Amino acid sequence: MPQLASDLSQQVNQRLNQVGPSGIREVAQKFSTIPGIIQLTLGEPDMNVPEHVKEAAIQSIRDNDSHYSPQKGTMYLRKGIHHYLMESQGLDYDPETEIIATVGATEAVCASLLTILNPGDKVVIPTPAFALYFPLVTIAGATTIQVDTSNSNFVLTPERLEEVLDQEGDSVKAVLLNYPGNPTGVEYPQSMIEGLAKVIADHHLLVIADEIYSELTYGVDHYSIANVIPERTILINGLSKSHAMTGYRMGYLAGPAELIANVTKMHAFMVTSPSNPAQAAAAEALHNGLQDPVEMRKIYQKRRDFVQHAMDEMGLSMATPSGAFYAFVKIPDSYGTDDVKFAYDLAEKAKVGGVPGSAFGAGGEGYIRFSYAASDDDLAEAMKRMQAFLTHKA
User: Which of 11, 86, 146, 365 has its CA 20 to 30 A from that of 35?
Assistant: First the structure.
């Protein structure tokens, strides 16, 4: 096995050295070695891709659809994205100039940040937030301004955003919003989105709106900020959550044509173009599968209610998710804010895996995230084990 020459040990992007690996993946990997553990760590739907969507991918392979697609994705897929955004949110984007198909929403976030940021720029991110965002901002040479929302029901209010922008000055370039949110599952009401949009516009900022969980809401309608300030919004979404297509790696972004032209360049440098069979499947989902998430929503809502009831029985509080499939739970008082110790104790002694809240930034300390995108049987057993562990600890 070759070893790197000692004189090359520092020949890497120094910004990359400033960030660690994904805290979520790191914990999931470590816990996976524990025999018999029930993993509630990853946001990985346990449901299957709809049959008609799978058939579209298979047909693409049969048709020898094996050559490079246009860099922004096939026109049929981009028209499908246009169709979905019009039907679900009333948003009108030109498939030719304002939409890009990406390799997952992850690539869409990365390409967007690398396009808009310069060294010295700042990005406001309400936290706790998906851990991916922080290292990407760092690698782009910018600085993350984490805004702890744990004392405001895990939402960034317009008033708090105004305060932060006044403090940070003109170097703030963008606000990154993810809602319904990971790790909390909290959705922003329309009135708050409209208030945030006004502050963003008043301060001449961009907003990156990661709305990957928009199809998974319970009792509330998702309202995109692109309805209010489309001229300032990079809208990101994908098929991983709505159609259980995590392994297909299909996402997309939409925005003003001038901005999308630059994001397209970055996207093309990174991946050239997405996989053709995956694009065919995504196009089928968006053209003909808009009702596919309906049954999934019902299942997730039932699981949410089950987990929330279980946490109530254990005397643990959690943010009430109105979307996504995460329970963000306050750890027992006996652990203080040491969510890492609690997560490891729970994994090793109760064989239940969750992600320490501190992995999600400021305001996450003292919490643990469980994904209820798991089978009913696994969830029932996990809650039973957790109850026994807490009873024994007491």
Answer: 365
Do the beta carbons of residue 325 and residue 303 sit within 8 Å? yes
Which residue is it, tokens 């109530």?
312
Helices (DSSP H) in 117-256: which residue ranges? Answer: 133-139, 158-168, 190-202
**Mean pLDDT (whole number) for 231-255:** 97
pLDDT at 352 (0 to 100) = 97
Q: Which helix (H) or strand (E) holds 52?
A: helix 51-62
Write the CB contacts of 369 (distance below 8 Å, at least 6 apart in sequence): 183, 326, 327, 328, 329, 354, 355, 356, 357, 359, 360
pLDDT given at position 199: 98
Please give the share of the chain, as a percent, with pLDDT higher than 90.
89
Q: What's the one-letter identity of residue 249?
A: R
pLDDT at 392: 82
Closest alpha carbon to 369 in 351, 386, 354: 354
The pLDDT value given to residue 21:
66
What are the helix (H) ranges across 98-212? 104-116, 133-139, 158-168, 190-202
The DSSP secondary structure of 7-27, one letter per residue, reads GGTT-S-HHHHTS-S-HHHHH
Q: At what angle do helices 276-288 and 75-89 cross, to 10 degrees?
A: 30
The answer to whether the CB of 132 falls within 8 A of the CB of 183 is no
pLDDT(35) > 60: yes
pLDDT at 315: 96
Region for residue 366 given its phi and psi (left: phi exceeds 0; alpha: psi -120 to 50; beta: otherwise): left
CA 172 – CA 131 distance, rounded (Å): 20
pLDDT greater than 60 at residue 363: yes
